[in-house]
Amino acid sequence: MTVRNLKFGALAFVATLTLGVGLTHPQTAQAATYTTVSSKTLTKTVYHKKSTSGALYTQGHSRKVAALKTYPNTTWYATKQATWKHGNSKGIYLYVSNKAGSVKGWIWHGYLTKGTAPFGLKYAKGAVAMDASTGKVVWSKAANTARPIASVSKIMTLYLTLQKVNSSSGSWNDVVDTSSKGLIAMGNDSACGGFKFKTGHKYTVKDLYYAAYLDSSNNAAIALGKWVAGSNAKFIQKMNAQAKSWGLTHTSFVSASGLENSDLKTFGYNYGSANANEVSPKDVATISRHLINDYPRVVTDGKIGSKSVDGQSLYNYNNLLSGRKYYQASLNVDGLKTGYTPLAGYCFVGTGQKSGKHRVITVVLHDENEFTETRSLMNHAYKSSSMTS
């Protein structure tokens, strides 16, 4: 993990020190008032936090290095032990470092407990790892708490688009009505656009599918919804009906694109009384599982890094794909959908299939490190015996 906003300065810290007779006593730490009574080298021993209290300090407790709460899922490696005296009290301290050795210092032993830290995600406010074959959740964090999901919402829009394309009522080559002044304005808006609806141009379902999927175009998603159901309102109702048919109880849609009503109102596409789509991590994973299993072409399309449609460049923002910054070859990531609004934060649904394993679906919501944490979550999920083919 990246160390952020570490503050150095004078100490104002209350430490609980273990007395020589086994009692504890709160003492106020003052700089350079801790002296070493004894010390010894340890065989490297693993520890993790016992609570959110405590901090790492330099020798003699003179300067704070890092708060323990900043590293909730870090395994610490102790290599030295010392007894420090402060006033009339003595305490046992351990010299520890993280695996990379980038964070290290002395900490009172009572703030740690032996053993490797349990797996966790530091930044995601909600997350799930699901076996795409069985639907089993193999790891979760606030799995059933509905949250704004931004453009991850387009997973449902894509599902209903593909559902119509694969029925007798629609085809990839159908021309979609893109004449709406609101959608044209949205495409020209730097904050809400991404794909321009040019006057006189004809756009097919396939064109807008790629624009909505790869480039996360909001006006393309809304136009597809109107093509599917006849109107924006009817499409949103269809989104909610589809979720209900799957038994999803922590899902509510008010937008085909994932934009909030506070933004959509400007373009005449606000709907309902709530401001945003709110879906739980588990429900997002379930929708994604239906999309992947019912329409497997999405994992083929999901690997497309960029594509040109009608002279416009579409860029896939999935940075776990081959050639991208966070790529890990063994995970074979081939999808699925990014999302961001200031309200929702960074959201990402990932999917990939490790050799000899079931396909995994991961969801991280409101996660400032969405790609690194997704990669960690995928690797952790594959340690589960249930993920083996």
Automatic annotation (TrEMBL):
Domain Peptidase S11 D-alanyl-D-alanine carboxypeptidase A N-terminal: 124-368
Entry keywords, A to Z: Cell shape, Cell wall biogenesis/degradation, Hydrolase, Peptidoglycan synthesis, Signal
Xref: Pfam families: Peptidase_S11 (PF00768)
Leader sequence segment: 1-31
PANTHER family referenced in this protein's UniProt entry, alphabetically: D-ALANYL-D-ALANINE CARBOXYPEPTIDASE (PTHR21581), D-ALANYL-D-ALANINE CARBOXYPEPTIDASE DACA (PTHR21581:SF11)
Family under the similarity heading: Belongs to the peptidase S11 family.
Protein name listed in UniProt: Peptidase S11 D-alanyl-D-alanine carboxypeptidase A N-terminal domain-containing protein
